[in-house]
Amino acid sequence: MIIVFTTILITGLILGHYNPVLSPISDVSEKDSIDSERQEKDIENFPPFPDVQDDDIENTSIQQKRGGILILANRGDPPAGFDTMRTSSIALHHVAGALFGPGNLVMRCRENMYLVCPYLARSWFPNPSFSEWTFILRNDVFWHDDTQFTPDDVKFWLNLAISGLNVGDKIRAPAYFEGDLEEIEKVEVLPPDQVRITLKNPNRFFPDILANPRLKIAHPRHLMEPRMNNGDVSISPLDIELIGLGPFKFKNYEPGTIIQVLRFENYFEKDDRGNQLPYLDGIDYVIISDPVAMDIAFRTGRLDGGARGFGHYLSEERIVGYTRDLGDDVSFAQIEGGTIRLAFNVLKSGPWQDMRIRRAIALWIDKESAIPAVLGGFGWTTPDISPNNLFKDKRFVIWPKFDLEPLDERRAKAKKLMEEAGYSNGFSMGHLCRARHTQACQFLKDQLLGLGIDLQLHIIDEGEWNRARVSLDFDTQPGALSVLPIPEGTEGVYGRFSISPDAYSKHEDEEVDRFYRLLRDATTTEGRIDIWRQLQKYLFLDKTYIIPIAEATYVVPYRTHVKGLTIPSEDGHTNTDFATVWLDK
Amino acid sequence: MRQFRIGNYLFWRVVSLILTTFIASVIIFIVMRMLPGDIVSWILSGGGEAVHSTEVREALRQELGLNDHLVVQYGRWLWSMVNGEFGGKSLVNGQPIASIVFRQFPVTFLLVTYAIILSVIVSVPLGVLAASRRNQWQDFLVRLITIPGQALPNFCSALFILLGLIIIFRWSPPIVYTNPWEDLLNHIQIILLPVLLLTWEHSSHIVRVTRAYILVVVNENYILYARAKGLPQGHILLRHALRNALVPIVTIMGLQLGWLLSGTLILEAIFGLPGLGGGLVQAALVRDYTVVQSLVTLLVFVMLSVNLIIDLIYRISDPRISLSNQLTHSYNGS
User: Could you give the ipTM of this predicted complex?
Assistant: First the structure.
C-alpha cells in the first residue's frame, strides 16, 4: 500500500500544476490592483451557461427530451424532516423544489425571477384597496397520492404557517417565515376553487412576498390534519412520505447517502408545446457534505450537477480542475449570492458608536481585494440585491462609483476621521466570525490593521452563530441572512433591533422605520426605487451602520448534457424544481 | 471456585461499566447544555441564512421541550434510553435515534472491524519480522512504511490518494454507499480506500509496539534457554517471544480503538460513508442534544465493553494474570 501511495504522491507532485482546494487562497497582494472594470469584464467573459431558449433545445423533440436520471450533489441531509415551514436550509430546498414545486399559489417566473408567475393559482386579483387578494386555483393539481389539491389545502397551509397549532398541551410552532405573512388577517375558502386572503393593511406587493421560493406547500391537509388533531402536532413531511405537489414524487431516502425522486405522471405543468413536464424520469440527489469529495466525484463523471450552498459553490482554483478534466463537457452556472459585510452593534458601547469611526472603516477597506481573497475570484463590490434586480442602485454595483476617490485618498480621509474622533492610535474591536467563513474574517482583520484597529476574531461554530447574531453580545458581525429580493423584504436585516432582532446591525434608528413605511405606502415602482436608494444611502453612507464589501457570484457546475436548466439571477433557492431539465446524452 | 471468581469478577465489572456509562451520560448532558449555541435558531435559520422572529423561536423551543427544567429533560432522555427508544428523537429532523444508530452503526462497525482485522493480519507478522531482522533491510523497510503511517494525518493522505487517483486514472470511488449484503462490489469499491488508510494508521502503531516488545523479550533468559535447547528460531519467536509480548500488544490495540473511531470521523466525510462518526460530528455542530447524548453514551458503552473483553483476553494470553488481581487492581485505582 505504501508503494501505491508513494507512487500516487510522487506522480501528484510531478503533475503538481494541480492546485488542490486546500491550498492557500490566491496571493492577495498580486490581485489587489484588480480594478472594478476588470471585475466586470471577468464576469462578462465567463463562459455563459447554456440558455434554455437555445435553438438546439427548441428543435429537440419530446422523445429526445424524455427520460433519464439526473444525478446531483446535495450539501447534506435535509433537516427538520423536509419541513419547509421549519427551515430555509439549501440542503432541503435544493431537493424540495422537485418534491413540492417551485412555489405555492404563485412562483417566481422561470425566465425572470423578478416577476411573479402563476403556479397553483391560475390567476388572482386584489380588491380596490389592496387589502384583499383572491386567488383562483387550477383544477388539475394533484398531490402525489392522486388526491385533488383544493382551496382547503391552502387555508390549512397558511393557517399552520401563520399560527402554528395547539392541541391540548402540545404546541406546534408557526413557520419560520411567519413574519413575511404576518399581515394576513384571515384566509377564506370560496368554493369551488377560490381562496380569499384578507390583510391587516393594504399591500400592493403581496404576490411578490408570496412568490418567495422558500414558501413551498409541503403539508397535505388530508394526511396531516387528522394526525395533528390526534396530538401528533410535530408531524413533518417525511412522516407522510413526502407527499407533495411538485413535478417529482418521492422514491427513496437513505440518510447520509441519497435521496431519489421519480417523475410524477399527474403533474400539471406543460411546456410551450403542450408536452407534460417534467422530462426526466427522476433525480438522484447524492448527499456529499465535503466539497472536495464533490469535486472529485464530478470530475470523474459521477455527477451531472453540483450542490447548491456555500462551500460547495466553486472558486476559480477549483474550476481549473474541472475544466482540465472535463473540458467542454462542463459548464458553470452563475448565481448572485450573499454579501460580505461588516455590521456594527451600535447599541453596545465602543468607539464604533461614533459615526466617524464607522465611516473611516468604510473608507479604509479595499473592497475590491475581497473578491480574489475571499470570494474565490467571483464577485463584485456591491451592497445588496443582485445587479440584475430592478431595484439595484447602479451606483452601488461597483463601489468606487459611490466613494469615487482613489484608495489612497479614501484612506487618508479615513485616517483623518479617526484622528478627529480621538482614535488616531486605533482601538480593539470584536468580530463574530463563523468558523466556515474565516477567510472573510481574516481579510477584515488584515485590512483594519492598517487603520490601527485590532479586530479580535471570535471564531464560533454554527450553533453559537445562530444564538450570538441575534443577541447584543458582539461588537461587529458579518451578517449572512437571505431576504426577499424586494426592498420591503429587507427590513428583517436592516430594521431597528426592537422590530428586527435578527438585523445585521443593531440600532434603534426610527428614521429607518420611516423609510420602510414610505416603501410600503409607495404606489409606483419608480417611487419604490427612489425610496430604496435613499434608504441604502442612509444605511450604508450617511450612518454607515453596515459596510457592504462585496457580493459573491456563486458558481455551480453542470455537465453540458444537462439542458433546459433555468439558472436564477440570484438566490440559489429559486428554480430548484428541475421540471424543464432534460439530458442530451 | 474458579467459576465463582469469574462470575464475581464479571458481575462487578458489569456494574462498574453501567455506573461509568451513567456518569458519562450525565457529564455529556451537562457539557452539551453548557456549550454556547442554539439548536432552535439553527433549525429556523436554515444554517444561519434566514430571518425568523423571537416568538417563533420560543414556540419551537417549547415544542421541542427545551423550556423544561434540565432535570426533566435529562430524566425524559434517560427513560427513553432504557425503554427501548434509545434516546427518543433527533431534535433537528425528528427521526428516531434508534433508527439513526441502526443505520449508522453498521457502517462504522464494518469500517473499524475491517481495519482491525487487517491490522492484526498485517502488523503482528511485520512487527515480528522487523524485530527478528533488526537493523537489516527488512527492518528498515518496515520502518519506512510505518513512520509515515503514524505521522501523516489520515485526511491528508486520503486527499492525496483521491487526487492522485483522479490525475492518474481519472477514477474515483463510487459516491453512493451500499452495505455488503446489498451490493458487495460497490461496497468494496467505496470502503476499500478508507479501510486501507485506517489500517495503515492503526497497524503502524502496532508494528512499532510489537517490534519493541519482541526485542525486549528475545533478550530474556528463557529465550536464551530455548535457543540453547536448539529450538528453531521461528518456533522461539512465535511460541515463546510473541506470546509473552502479546499482553502489551493487545493493550495497545484496545487503546487504539478510540483513535480508530476518531479516525473514521473525517474519512467518513471525505469518502461519503454515512457512519456514526460523521453523524456525531454533525449532530454536535448543530447542538442536536439528544442525538449527541445517545451516540456518545453508546460509544462510551462500546469502549468500556471492549476494555472488558481485552481484560478477559489478558487472562487467556497470560495465565499468570489472575482475575482477582485485576479486580483488586481496578478497585485500588491502579
Answer: 0.80
Tell me: the pLDDT tens digits for B82-116? 888 888 899 988 889 999 988 898 999 999 999 99
A559 pLDDT more than 80: yes
Rounded CA gap, B29 and B24, in Å?
8
Q: What is the mean pLDDT of residues B21-33?
A: 94
* B294-306 pLDDT per residue, tens: 999 998 998 899 8
| Cβ atoms B43, B35 nearer than 8 A | no
- Report which listed range, A368-382, A472-486, A570-584, is most confident: A570-584
Which cell goes with A204? Answer: 400592493
Query: A482–B53: do the CB atoms touch at under 8 Å?
Result: no
pLDDT of A8 higher than 50: no
User: What pLDDT sits at residue B162?
Assistant: 85
Asked if pLDDT for residue A36 goes beyond 80, the answer is no
Q: How many CB atoms lie within 10 A of CB A513?
A: 15
CATH homologous superfamily for the domain B97-285: MetI-like (1.10.3720.10)
C-alpha cell, B205:
502503531
Q: How far apart are CA A341 and CA A362, in angstroms?
A: 10
- Looking at the complex, report in whole angstroms how far the Cα of residue B277 sits from the nearest Cα belonging to chain A: 12
Q: What are phi and psi of A162, to 5 degrees?
A: -80, -40
Place of cell 481579510: A443
For residues A295, A298, A303, A307, the Cα torsion angle rounded to the nearest 10 degrees is 30
Query: Residue B237: which pLDDT band, with cuts at 50, 70 and 90?
Result: confident
Higher-confidence residue: B55 or A239?
Answer: A239
- pLDDT of B323 > 80? The answer is no
Interface test with A, best of B32, B44, B276, B281 (most A CBs within 10 A): B44
Interface of B with A in 197-236 (CB under 8 A): 199-200
Q: Which domains does chain A have, with CATH numbers?
A: 67-284+561-583 (3.40.190.10), 336-553 (3.10.105.10)
Residues 76-105, chain B, touching A (beta carbon < 8 A):
92-95, 100, 103-104
Residue A417 burial class via C-beta count within 10 angstroms: exposed 0-12, middle 13-18, buried 19 and up:
buried
Distance (Å, whole) CA A148 – CA B178: 37
Interatomic CA distance for residues A388 and A335, integer angstroms: 11
A460: which chain B residues are within 8 Å (Cβ-Cβ)? 36-37
C-alpha cell at B169: 486514472
Contacts of B46 in chain A (CB under 8 A): 79, 87-90, 92, 176
Interface test with B, best of A4, A6, A8 (most B CBs within 10 A): A8
Phi-psi region of A578 (alpha: psi -120 to 50; beta: other; left: phi over 0): left
Q: Is the pLDDT of residue A507 over 90?
A: yes
The confidence score (pLDDT) of residue B54 equals 79
Give the strand order in the sheet containing A258-263. Answer: A69-74, A282-287, A258-263, A248-254
Is B121 near chain A, with CB under 8 Å? no
Contact yes or no for A343/A504 (Cβ under 8 A): yes
Chain center to CA of A309: 8
What are the Cα distances from residue B45, in Å, to A88, A177, A469, B30? 6, 10, 11, 25
Instruction: Give the start-end residues of each E strand in B103-167.
Output: none
At CA B162, angle to CA B159 and CA B165, rounded to 5?
Answer: 145
Distance from CA of B147 to the nearest CA of A (A): 11
Nearest chain A Cα distance for residue B157, angstroms: 8
Which of B38, B51, B269 minimises the CB distance to A289?
A: B269
What is the per-residue pLDDT for A402?
64
CA nearest B60 in A: which residue? A173
C-alpha cell at A364: 479604509
Helices B184-217 and B154-169 meet at what angle, rounded to 10? 130
pLDDT, position A18 = 33
